């Protein structure tokens, strides 16, 4: 059991800026960060991302994964959005993570520098699905391997499932920012998520942040759903 403060990030996964704004307002008292990702950015565009992010802390989840030069340049292209957090895929390799980190350090002022988070193994993959990609040995071993690579090359934190949190804390201590999607309140549908845990379990296992989308945005009352999850994080 830790005395860690675990924050709630709400994933506003929609193509519709009006819907995203409605959800953002509903969850504002309970979530300190909103996450906008590929669905929203591709459909609504980056001007809409900027409008929604104004006055809010933004987790810009673009999961960059390309050659180092391209990823570095892409990170440098995101300054006007003033994100608080950015994602890249750790599986892009050491040089790619290092390029992202260098570009983040060069392009952003110290005061507005976003956290660079490296996605390890997607929470939608179980060991069998991961093995299909050629990675044997299971998700936990691969998360630890990619975590070492990412942290050594300048990432501030990791996106992982809550199942790997205790192993990551044992290996890398308290300083990496650990962000866990694949969170489901007890009884909620897992959907396409495979490595899931409840908000309370993730907090106790060492999460700094949990990411929750559909259990909030798909609820009849998103504000109440967010409030219940926030309460579980502090109980
Ligand atoms: O980087 C992420 O945020 C992410 C990584 C990961 O391994 N798994 C994962 O689900 N996510 C994101 O977290 C959110 C989870 O949404 P729900 O499954 O609806 O709660 C989605 O926006 C995903 O894109």
UniProtKB/TrEMBL annotation:
<keyword id="KW-0210">Decarboxylase</keyword>
<comment type="function">
    <text>Catalyzes the decarboxylation of orotidine 5'-monophosphate (OMP) to uridine 5'-monophosphate (UMP).</text>
</comment>
<comment type="similarity">
    <text>Belongs to the OMP decarboxylase family. Type 1 subfamily.</text>
</comment>
<feature type="binding site">
    <location>
        <position position="213"/>
    </location>
    <ligand>
        <name>substrate</name>
    </ligand>
</feature>
<comment type="pathway">
    <text>Pyrimidine metabolism; UMP biosynthesis via de novo pathway; UMP from orotate: step 2/2.</text>
</comment>
<dbReference type="InterPro" id="IPR018089">
    <property type="entry name" value="OMPdecase_AS"/>
</dbReference>
<protein>
    <recommendedName>
        <fullName>Orotidine 5'-phosphate decarboxylase</fullName>
        <ecNumber>4.1.1.23</ecNumber>
    </recommendedName>
</protein>
<dbReference type="InterPro" id="IPR014732">
    <property type="entry name" value="OMPdecase"/>
</dbReference>
<feature type="binding site">
    <location>
        <position position="193"/>
    </location>
    <ligand>
        <name>substrate</name>
    </ligand>
</feature>
<dbReference type="GO" id="GO:0004590">
    <property type="term" value="F:orotidine-5'-phosphate decarboxylase activity"/>
</dbReference>
<dbReference type="InterPro" id="IPR011060">
    <property type="entry name" value="RibuloseP-bd_barrel"/>
</dbReference>
<dbReference type="InterPro" id="IPR047596">
    <property type="entry name" value="OMPdecase_bac"/>
</dbReference>
<feature type="binding site">
    <location>
        <position position="13"/>
    </location>
    <ligand>
        <name>substrate</name>
    </ligand>
</feature>
<dbReference type="Pfam" id="PF00215">
    <property type="entry name" value="OMPdecase"/>
</dbReference>
<dbReference type="InterPro" id="IPR013785">
    <property type="entry name" value="Aldolase_TIM"/>
</dbReference>
<dbReference type="InterPro" id="IPR001754">
    <property type="entry name" value="OMPdeCOase_dom"/>
</dbReference>
<feature type="binding site">
    <location>
        <position position="35"/>
    </location>
    <ligand>
        <name>substrate</name>
    </ligand>
</feature>
<feature type="domain" description="Orotidine 5'-phosphate decarboxylase">
    <location>
        <begin position="7"/>
        <end position="229"/>
    </location>
</feature>
<feature type="binding site">
    <location>
        <position position="123"/>
    </location>
    <ligand>
        <name>substrate</name>
    </ligand>
</feature>
<keyword id="KW-0456">Lyase</keyword>
<feature type="active site" description="Proton donor">
    <location>
        <position position="63"/>
    </location>
</feature>
<comment type="subunit">
    <text>Homodimer.</text>
</comment>
<feature type="binding site">
    <location>
        <position position="214"/>
    </location>
    <ligand>
        <name>substrate</name>
    </ligand>
</feature>
<feature type="binding site">
    <location>
        <begin position="61"/>
        <end position="70"/>
    </location>
    <ligand>
        <name>substrate</name>
    </ligand>
</feature>
<keyword id="KW-0665">Pyrimidine biosynthesis</keyword>
<feature type="binding site">
    <location>
        <position position="184"/>
    </location>
    <ligand>
        <name>substrate</name>
    </ligand>
</feature>
């Amino acid at each position: 059991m830790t005395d860690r403060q675990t924050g709630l990030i709400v994933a506003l996964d929609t193509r519709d800026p009006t819907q995203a704004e409605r959800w953002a307002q509903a969850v504002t008292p309970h979530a300190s960060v909103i996450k906008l990702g590929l669905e929203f950015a591709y459909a609504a565009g980056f001007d809409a991302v900027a409008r929604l992010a104004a006055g809010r802390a933004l987790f810009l989840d673009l999961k960059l994964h390309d050659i180092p030069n391209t990823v570095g340049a892409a990170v440098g292209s995101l300054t006007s959005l003033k994100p608080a957090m950015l994602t890249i895929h750790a599986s892009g390799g050491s040089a790619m993570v290092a390029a992202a980190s260098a570009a983040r350090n060069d392009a952003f002022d110290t005061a507005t520098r976003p956290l660079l988070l490296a996605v390890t193994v997607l929470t939608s993959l179980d060991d069998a699905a991961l093995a299909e990609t050629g990675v044997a040995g299971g998700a936990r071993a691969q998360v630890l391997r990619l975590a070492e690579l990412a942290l050594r090359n300048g990432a501030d934190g990791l996106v992982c499932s809550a199942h790997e949190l205790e192993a990551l804390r044992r290996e890398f201590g308290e300083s990496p920012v650990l962000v866990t999607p694949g969170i489901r309140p007890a009884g909620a549908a897992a959907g396409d998520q495979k490595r899931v845990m409840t908000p309370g379990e993730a907090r106790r296992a060492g999460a700094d942040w949990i990411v929750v989308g559909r259990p909030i945005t798909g609820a009849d009352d998103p504000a109440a759903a967010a409030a219940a999850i926030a309460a579980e994080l502090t109980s």
